[in-house]
Amino acid sequence: MLEHLELFFKSIFIDNMVFAVFLGMCSYLAVSKKVSTAVGLGAAVIFVLAVTVPLNWLLDQYLLRDGALAWLGPEYADYNLSFLSFILFIATIATMVQLVEIVVEKFSPSLYNSLGIFLPLIAVNCAILGGSLFMQAREIPTLGLALNYGVSSGIGWFLAILAIAAIREKIRYSNVPAPLRGLGITFIITGLMGIGFQSFGGMLTGDNEPPEAEEPTTVEKIEEKKIIEEEIEDDEKAISYNDVINE
User: How many domains does the chain have?
Assistant: First the structure.
C-alpha cells in the first residue's frame, strides 16, 4: 500500500510530465486558454494514460522483452521482440485515442469542436508515449503499479494544464508588459509552477541520516563494568604468576 501511495504522489508532484520532463508541452500551451477546454483535454489524457500504460505493460511483460515469450514454450525463450516496442505502444495509444475521439464527438460535440485538432493529436502527444516508455524503463513490477502510474501521471498532467488555464484566464485582463504577453508570460508562470511542484520532493525522501546508537542501560553498564574488572583481575593474577616463575 505504501508503495502505491509513494508512486501516486511522486508521479503527480515530483515527476510531473510537464514540470519535470517537459512532455506534452504543445497541447499544454495551445489548449490552456480556457478552463473548460483544459478540463476536457485533461480528462481525455487521464483516460488514455490509465488504459494504455497497463496495456503496454502487458505487452512488454508477455511479448516484447527478452525471454517474454517463454510462456509459449522453451523454444521461444530466446526470442527478443523489444525492437517492436515503439510500434506496438503507438498502435495501442492510437486505438485508445480513436475511441476517446468517438465518445467525445458523440456525447459532447461542443467540447469536440473546441478541442479541434488537438484531440486526435493525443495519439502523438509525447506525454502519452512517455508514460509507457517510463513504465518500461523503470521496470514497474506489477500490473497494479502500472495502472497506478498511468492514472497518477495523467492526473499530474491534468493539474498542470488546469492550473495554467485558470491563471491565463485571470491574467487576460491584467497589465502584463507588452513583450511578455501571450506565450512569454505563460513560460514564466510555467517555470514558477515547476519550481513549486519540485518543492514536493522532500515529502518522500524521509530522514536519510543514520540512526543514532542507543545508549546502554544502567544494567548493561553494570555488567560491562563487572566484565572489565574480572579481566583486570585475571591480568593481575597472570602478571603475579609470571613474576613468581621468574624469581
Answer: 2
